[in-house]
Amino acid sequence: MEVEEGFDVELVAAEPLVIAPVAMTFDEKGRIWVVEMDGYMPDTLGIGEDAPVGRVVILTDRNDDGRMDERSVFLDSLVMPRAICLVDSGLLLAEPPNLWFYEIRADKPVSRTLVDSTYAEGGNVEHQPNGLLRGLDNWIYSAKYDWRYRRSPGGAWLKEKTHFRGQWGISQDDWGKLYYNDNSSNLSGDYFPAGLGSNNPSQRKVAGYGETIVADNRVYPARPTTGVNRGYKDGVLDSTGRLVNFTAACGPLVYRGGLLPGINAFVAEPAANLIKRNVLVEDGYRVVGEQAYHGREFLASSDERFRPVNLHDGPDGALYVVDMYRGIIQHSTYLTPYLKKEIETRGLTLPLGMGRIYRVIPKGVKANWITMPRRTDSLVVLLGHTNGWVRDKAQQVLVDRRATDVVDQLRGILSGGDNSLQVAHALWTLEGLGHLTLPDIQTVLQRQPWQLRAQAIVATVSLASTVAQKELANLVTTYLSGQDTLLLPYATFAIASLTAMEGSVSAQWAIEHADNKYLADAVISGLEGQEHIFLQQLSARLPDTTSVLYSRVSAVVHRLKGEPTAGSQRLLAKRYPQGVALFQNACQPCHGEDGRGVSPIAPPLAGSQWVKGNKQRLMALVLYGLTGPVDVSGHTYDVPEVSGEMPGIAHNSTIDDAELAQLLSYIRNAWGNATGDEVLPENLGEVRSTFGQRTASFTQEELYQLFGKD
Known about the structure:
The chain is α+β, with helices and mostly antiparallel strands. 28% of the residues lie in helices and 23% in strands.
């Protein structure tokens, strides 16, 4: 490995202690719980992925030297497990399609509860929910998913809608804002807290969420990387055979270990055997970033089987690297003939049954390994620790232990604590314990740092079941003025979750700042079912129809007029059952259940001329893929708004033309497209015979030349 000067890479665990790791977490004793996806892609066809060979194991360091010495199996006989979260003295585990909760006693599972039978339903292994990040606000968030979870004190599991985020891996910063990416992008994230802004299902994109944080996608491998899925395409590799831009970005981590200056975000790129370092800067509520280096990486390996798939903070402040360590990482669903040949030529199918966990730490730094103390007052002190992992874990342990004996101590921090991060954690610990009150909110709203006041505003929403929502909204507006531009979006998002926007103070704020897109979208997030009424009011109060507020509300109203009925979708599902199943597995993860596209991955199918128009053109596009910018409904989609590459499935032997014909017939008639025109299996055969064994994706211009624009 080549690592940035001033850092050491140390081995924490290797086979046979750990095998095919894909996710990990530390418990309060400092042990590592690892998810092992041993069944992933045993060969280029993926045969055997349904074998129950996955595990959750516990790794223990017995002699305190920083290396794991002991492996114990907590769960085995799992099929493709993908994520875990320690919570409430138990373990939350994602094993598709289910989300399970295991009660733990003496490091053994004693009971199992089904939390959600549809957590990872549909999609392939590259496009299923994962992450299970326990956020600052005590909710559990996932990548590639738009729901969040939480266990109530009585043991019931709560499930709420949130924003759709990322692809593989999810992280948070010190203020609980979430960060993520997709396989072609460096880093995306939220400007505002995780639990707000997702109230209105008719709102497609909410400003301040899913923002591009680092737009530069250039990578600098230490070795030629011809074994990438699109290595045959011009521009994918440079003249030395090295990958030019991200193609498998994953496992983003906003580092909070306290051993590096500034705000650093690391991103893994297993296809190029490297880890990227980005430097972030906070500009009010906005966050912007750039790569830390040009022409080199924070860490890069010359070993083709080094596959970093997840990154984590640790109890010692180190950066932990989960290395799946295997030759094949591209799933068979999208495996190109080019990459299949690369795999065969260099024998990348074997060996299997390997895996590594490393830690990266500054040279000369004596790591201070923190385990959670038994005394609850000591845990409260740790809420102000310099290591963000320690702060998070201290909060989580207090909540899980139902440590109500520290409530007064926490309230003392709210009013008199001089460590803003400790104040924020004290606030959310009270919320997690069920002891947060209106006076607590008022106390923090009177603090000077705007970030703390923002946390208090967000926390008001958690009291909605015990305090009148109107009273909560009034509390927020009491402490704000229309000129407090840093806090207005927070307040408007919070009020949109609490009360009707019609005639509200926050709606007036949005009108006063009619070109502020964050305020506009915050208002819209609270308008479900009332968009047309609000637009009528705007017409009278805001004559400028070119303003951001007016145009965004108008766009939602226009979209609602064209929404298909639920009944029509159900009829299509009955007519094309194989097509719907294939859509859910191969298309929905990128284009969305409603065909409206998923940002920043893929454009919409609903209303798209590519779907509704010439069906030979559509068949060619789906079979052989599309690369580069694409025009859809008058808008040009390009990187970073979308990934810029749609893989073809012509060479996927697991998908037959009967299924694919149903899929194309389904999307040509779903979501209001209603062409009435079906695709038949023989139509696909004709297109295949025309283009044969073509492997290169089409460009928009090529397809227009071949089939026209109609």
